[in-house]
Amino acid sequence: MKDRAVPARTSTPEARASGVRPWHGYGLGLRTEHFDSVLDENPAVDWFEIISENFMVAGGKPRHYLDRIRARYPLAMHGVSLSIGSSDPFDSGYLRQLKQLVREVDPIWVSDHLCWTGNGGINSHDLLPLPYTEEAIVHVTSRIGEVQDFLGRELLIENVSTYVSFANAEMDEAAFLSEIVRRSGCRILLDVNNVYVGSRNHGFDADAYVAALPAERIWQIHLAGHSDYGDYVIDTHDHPVCEAVWELYARTLERLGPVTTMIERDDAIPPLADLVAELGRARRIGSATRRLQPVDCA
Amino acid sequence: MMRLDALERRFLAHVRGGQVFPREWCAQGLVDSDIGLAIYTNAYASRLREALEADHPLLALYLGDRLWAELCAGYIEAHPSRVRSLRHFGQHVPLWLAGNKPFSDHPAIAQLAAFERELLDVFDAADAARVDWSVMQAFDAAAWPGVRLRFHPSVRLLATTTNAVAIWRALKDGQSPPEAQPSTTPAHLLWRDVDRVSRFRAVDEVELLALRSFHSDRQDFAIVCERLARIRPANEVPALALGILRQWFEEGLIASAASDDSAGST
After folding, report:
1. Which residues of A touch B5 (CB under 8 A)?
2. Which of A69, A234, B104, B131 has the fewest CB atoms found within 10 Å of its own CB?
3. Which of A85, A125, A163 lies closest to B36 in CB terms?
């Protein structure tokens, strides 16, 4: 592959205030529908996030576009199949493919979800909920360590939207995630929409959730839309980011300082220009945040 | 208290429509656990159906809603995903269709599915440089019998006993598909061209024999000509073989050519 694009925006107020957190600005999820637009329009996007599994193919158009877009924009790799919380052994073939892709893409970072996707060798292709127990913490921490050792780099782990919680929980979700981060040394990909969805479905305080996390470990933020059914909310990524999530995002930045941010859209995908415009709102919130001092990184 | 493995096993069984996850294992928050579990169950089935439809849009159109739903339900039950990428979830669809009624009563259905899967494989097969006819011209006459070809990684050969590809073509063009019937050609060749456009065309029995000999059996030019001489007059074979080879080079099917009888290779 060609040389990777250099990260942009190293001298913005956000960059100066981001402390030990690497600052990459504002990005979008790279989707097949936008491949040509990205190359033709050179959109004002600081970086793109790819779904790792979509590029674990030998060649053809996916790799052709990946190579060219990578030459222009920094890329982050975001996986959906690591299944870090599964009690199955790791899929060694998948890990090898992931490592190979990391070598080829040289991403700004690699992330996946705090969940499990399968059991007994069967993959649900969904992000399934973990019980918030010491047993799960020990299991997940060990597995994150294994992956980090194998890849030779730290992972970012994302909080997921959940619709069920378990009776054997020994702590809340924020405490569970924080403890895993503390023990494993991984970073957090904070999905603000997922925090909102969880707060609606489980009745916790979204701001208290964010406040409970180790701020200096939050290296990236996801924003996305969801489907609101009144009594419950489903994380569908098929709508623009809603007002309540924008407000939570603004409060989160006030608390954390600048955090590299991107918008995910996976269904009912609009023209690229619409998403770039939506990303502009994240930029405006980010630049307006009062917390432009480095976070305490003790 | 349940262990993590037991919880995951029971949870996935529920999501797949099997043994019910014990309600007492769930906490009851703002959303009742029955609703929460149903969200996961619905998402499981719909995600896999969507993956099959993304891979087989024209098969879905051909079958219609009722049979398509029957296919999805039967396939998801018989072949739960054991892959990490949904790209490969439907890899057993053609074989499953060929072995399960009512689909197996109509061989064109499984062959239509096989054609769509070959197109998927062509789309993201490995890349490789291609060589042109000048490579062959560079061999001296003594080297020609030993020439072997390496095909572009995207090249696929699909045996067709029905007119499944004609059905696919009609559906793709928004036309009514023809009645399913026996094929007039024994196979189709599929590949990705230099502009990364997926191509396909029918091949006759002569070209099929040449393709199988060069591509599948990795034989040299001399052996290929011997085989062709079994189905065509021997004096016609050299010109026939040359014509076929030239077309393959022009279509960008050949990644390299090398001869066992000389140092010349690409």
Report:
1. 87, 119
2. B104
3. A163
Could you list the residue range(s) of the whole structural domain that residue B217 is in? 128-165+187-266
> Which of A103, A45, A104, A109 has the alpha carbon at shortest distance from A276?
A45
Q: Which domains does chain A have, with CATH numbers?
A: 13-288 (3.20.20.150)
Q: Which token pair is B189?
A: 């060749």
**Quick check: is B152 in a domain?**
yes
Number of domain units in chain B: 1
What's the rounded mean pLDDT across residues A232-258? 93
In a domain, B227, yes or no: yes
> How many other CB atoms are there within 10 angstroms of residue A271's CB atom?
12
β-pairing, B187-192 with B156-159? antiparallel
Tokens for A26?
């504002």
Type of residue found at B11: F
B266: pLDDT confidence band, cut at 50, 70 and 90?
very low
Q: What is the pLDDT of residue B260?
A: 80
Q: In Å, how far are B126, B248, B252 from B159, measured between CA atoms?
A: 22, 18, 21
Q: Is pLDDT of A295 > 70?
A: no
**Model confidence, pTM:** 0.91
Contact A63 B3 (CB under 8 A): no
Higher-scoring residue by pLDDT: A8, A202 = A202
Shortest Cα distance, chain A CAs vs residue B121, angstroms = 10
Q: How far, in whole angstroms, is CA A146 from its chain's centroid?
A: 20
Residue B258's DSSP bridge partners are B148, B265
Query: Is B75 a residue whose pLDDT tops 50?
Result: yes
Q: Kindly state the DSSP code that residue B258 receives in the 8-state scheme.
A: E
Q: Note whether B229 and B239 are within 8 A (CB).
A: no
- Average pLDDT of B146-162? 96
Q: Please state, in angstroms and as integers, the Cα–Cα distance from residue A19 to each residue in A49, A217, B251, following that order.
A: 22, 11, 56
* Chain B touched by A89 (CB under 8 Å): no
Find the CB nearest B44 among A124, A136, A139: A124
How far apart are alpha carbons B191 and A256 in whole angstroms? 52
Query: Are A122 and B16 an interchain contact pair (Cβ–Cβ within 8 Å)?
Result: yes
Residue B229 has, within 13 A of its CA and on its CB side, a CA count of 9
- Fill in the DSSP letter of residue A124: E
In sequence order, the β-bridge partners of residue A191 are A222
Query: Which chain B residue's Cα is nearest to A231?
Result: B31
Tell whether A133 is within 8 A of chain B (Cβ): yes
Q: Cβ–Cβ of B85/A62 closer than 8 Å?
A: no
Q: Which of B213-217, B222-226, B244-248, B262-266 has the lowest mean pLDDT?
A: B262-266
Q: Give the Cα separation of A184 and A168 in Å (integer).
A: 23
In a domain, B114, yes or no: no
pLDDT of residue A20: 73
3-class secondary-structure state, position B114: helix
In a domain, B261, yes or no: yes
**Residue A121 pLDDT more than 90?**
yes
Hey, are the CB atoms on B31 and A122 less than 8 Å from each other? no
| pLDDT at A95 exceeding the cut of 80 | yes
